[in-house]
Amino acid sequence: MSEAQPNYVEIKPRKGWGDLGIKETWEFRELLYFLIWREIKGRYRQMALGPTWIILKPFVTMVVLSLVFGKLAKLPSDGVPYPLFSYSALLPWTLFTVSLNKSATSLVSNMGIISKVYFPRMVVPISTACAGLVDFFMSFLILIGMMLYFGYMPGLKLLILPMYLALAVATAMAVGLWLATLAVRFRDVAYAVEHLLQVAMYLTPVVYPASMVPEAWRGLYMLNPMAQVVEGFRWALVGTGQAPNLITVAVWGIVLALLFSGAHLFRRTERTVVDLM
Description:
It contains 13 helices and no strands. It has helices at about 20-25, 30-45, 50-70, 80-105, 105-110, 110-115, 125-150, 160-185, 190-200, 215-220, 225-240, 245-270, 275. The radius of gyration is 21 Å and the shape is globular.
């Protein structure tokens, strides 16, 4: 009687640009859920106020912006009360910045796991980007309360919000995947991202309406994906801003191209990520 042959699993690095590993990532969805939950719990661990910071951060920022830009600078808000005008923009912007920051540093911050256990590395930036959605939905309840307080009743336009929400997350993921591959080689990427996001906030209509941008430049200005998201949120929630149009379709095309190319680059980098670290 011949002895049973041992079973081996051979893991080989992928070659070329053809495979994004979507099927393999789906097979590790339980790990994805675990990493999302770990990210949420770890973010507010050992904090006196805990998850309350989810609501406090955008709310306090809204108060400061309302005082500085609404009262002192007297920036226009298209007829909408400035607190509601700014808060409706801060929610998607905060989601974008948190998701982008976490995605850009996801490989570096999770190297302890990556260097010990094999799993599709794509799970890591996806989990960090999706974890920000929990913060968003909790803060969104405050926004609904503010709308009712100021007399703005949510309408059927709310049905378009998931499209803009997906655009914000997709943009964060697209840019985050590109930056995550750079962060493996250059550790100062994280610092650069923080400063660039501060500048990007003023290139996005968060504290001012897009109607202030000269008409000749507005088409180019609205190619900024987050300008589309912010203006789309305001259009759906308070009736100002910009409705979906052909520029929105073009922006989706740009973001998807960045997302797929970033995913390809990420898959190539993950072959040697442990050696580079």
